[in-house]
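Entries read sequence, tokenised fold; example below:

***
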Amino acid sequence: MTTSYREQLLAVLRGESVSSLPWAPRMDLWQISLQARGALPARFAGMNTAGIADELGVACHAVRADYTMKRDPADLLLRGLGLDNHPDYPFRVELHGLDVDLDVGPEHVRSVIHTAAGDVETHLELTQAMQAEGISLPFVRRYPIESVADFDAVAHVFDHCEVIPTPAAYHTFHERIGGRGLAVASGPIAASPIHLVLHELAAMDRFYYLFADSLDRLLELSARLEPFYEACLDAVVQCEAEVVFWGANYDRDLTWPPFFAAHIAPWLTHVAERLHDAGKLLLTHADGENDHLMHFFAECGVDVVESVCPAPMTKLSLAELRAGFGPQVTVWGGIPSVVLLSDSMHNDEFERYLDRLFDDAAQRDRLILGVSDNVPPDADLRRLARIGERVASQL
């Protein structure tokens, strides 16, 4: 009987031997961009990510959701707080009991949420030009936190956010992907409450000033957000997913090792324990510079580090990354997006890169090939096909 891509990917994640190296490039942002440009090749017309994977003859990258799907604009109204809804997610977040003033235009959303502790303002922008570059989520022009004075109001908003489990919605996603790949259920994009402040609620430079000058108040805010995070965790535990996404975008400078140890690792450990007790695996999106962070993931019980990006876009080779993450953690990624761009790497250099890549991938255990972070809009699809040929030649 033919093994499905889903069965193959699960086998790798469980540390079982497989006959071939799985190859699952992320195609959704590529599709969004070319669709916005009016340049999507006819062979892909009308296809979602599962259909594109079928056409390319690869496993479907289905981590969190299929972002090629049209969404109700209301699903992005809380994006300024780092929250969005999607028909594929295992839960929805709804705001209750607070008045909201909205200014919604074709390319922007401005919101003012009125709370007893003050107003929370956000300004989002998603232009046609941004979509043509493959951007699927609005850019935040105004963050809800600009100073300590905003902490209480933001906490009030999260006090009024209800996490509503949607297991049937996730089931539809799971069934749509089927044997084409793994429908990885989405948890929060920030791994912990304080990571949410860094990642979504404040401009990054502002966060570091707040961390240095007002850490006690920042920790108080983080504690106020914990019930929301626990509700998200309850929801992902309830769904039928084999693998759950939780947390993204770590970097040795931005989420430096002491910060990671104190403010991210405890939550990843907590999430891993809950998921493992429910028979699920934990995937986290580790696409940054992982030097000095790699050991944390195995220590926290993370099963899969996804979108892993090696040199030349970061310091470390795939072999060094695999060794650093350790033998119990599956690495999903390994191909930096720049190698797919003909203006970044000529063909002879690309072939030499593939030689090094497949030398590093000779040991197939705990490895799924993918593109970090995603296949770029200007990718040469012949190079994707060439990677597929090299994968097939490993049989």
Remarks:
- Residues 215-238 form the longest helix (24 residues).
